[in-house]
Amino acid sequence: MIPSLELKKPSQLLALTSKTVISKRNLFDLIQFSKQNQTEYFEGDEWKINNTPQQGINWIGNNFDLKAVIIKTRKGSYAEDGWQDNEKTLFSYSFKAQQGIINYNDKANKSLINQPIGGYPILLFSEKSSNWIFEGLFTIMKMDKRSVVLKKIHNLLELSKNQDIIPTPSTQKDVTYIEGERKFVTHLLAERNAQIIKDLKSKIPWICDICNLEFIKLYSKNYIEAHHKRPLHTYQNSHTVSIEDFVMLCPNCHKAVHILLREDNLEYDCAKDKILSLLNNE
């Protein structure tokens, strides 16, 4: 077994190798004090580890831009939890429940449910005496209304490969919640920039900047979506924006842009060119 490692910063978690040993005291302190400025574990607001150290699920980053989810699993916590294969590449993990009832709005559960959308890694730790054993990086392979199955990956580059085949929790209530969660960043943008969005829509024709669709001509309803060319999560603090920072997009192009920004790491202009190329080849 690899000797115990002393972690000083949350970012070190993403560089761990399988079977690294972390003392419970060290991980407790890292989680607890990553949220407190002026401590040696603090690495900025974007690296805060949320939830209390005693909980089984912690997440790094803010609610809309997570860097990773930490899972600490103890034998016997949930009867269904555990390895699904002898090679220890598949692990079943239950959603957090209270008296057998799962709250899908619970932030810990949401950090798991949103993992296929966010594309961030899951860091799995197993308990051994007074230590935690790092089992590796994982992504969600499948999901049902009570649990997820985690699949081990070798590096962060593998995270986007299985995103399109992940089912969501199976009840209609859960599906509705997750679909709303996918759009929450867009809603947040409108709320934080209510006046500029209003001004934008009053001054610019409601025509898609990419495909030139006029919603009202096709559906007899006036509709358009405003897209911030530079994603909000790339700003560290409050900032000044102008109308030139936005473009108007139809729902299809808007969704395609976000996928290309997330999965191909493209800037808006490059994403626009790629979509236009695909549309022209139809």
Record keyword descriptors for this entry.
single chain, 282 residues, alpha+beta, nine-stranded mixed beta sheet, two-stranded antiparallel ribbon, 9 helices, 13 strands, 29% helix, 23% strand
Structural commentary:
Strand 7 (97-98) and strand 8 form a beta hairpin. The longest helix has 13 residues, at 251-263. The strands form 3 sheets. Strands 1, 2, 3, 4, 5, 6, 9, 10 and 11 form a 9-stranded mixed sheet that branches. The protein has helices at residues 24-33, 107-113, 115-118, 172-182, 184-192, 194-203, 215-219, 251-263, 268-280; strands spanning 21-23, 49-50, 57-62, 65-73, 82-83, 90-94, 97-98, 101-102, 122-128, 131-143, 147-153, 225-228, 246-249. It is elongated, with a radius of gyration of 21 Å. The protein is an alpha+beta fold and 282 residues long.
In helices, the fraction of residues equals: 25-40%
SSE arrangement, N to C = EHEEEEEEEHHEEEHHHHEEHH
The geometry reads as: elongated
| Sequence stretches where pLDDT stays below 50 over 5 or more residues | 161-167, 170-192
Q: How many individual β-strands?
A: 13
Q: Which percent range describes the beta-strand content? A: 15-25%
Structure annotation, total helices: 9
Instruction: Quickly give the structural class.
Output: alpha+beta
| Most strands sheet | 9 strands, mixed
Calculate the mean pLDDT score and round it.
Answer: 83
Gyration radius (Cα, Å) is 21 Å
How widely separated are the two ends?
Answer: 56 Å
